[in-house]
Amino acid sequence: MKNDIHPEYGWVVFRDASADFAFLTRSTLSADNAGGPGRPEKTVEWTDGKSYPVIDVEISSASHPFYTGTARVVDTAGRVEKFNRRYGRKS
Question: What is the pTM of this model?
Answer without folding.
Answer: 0.60
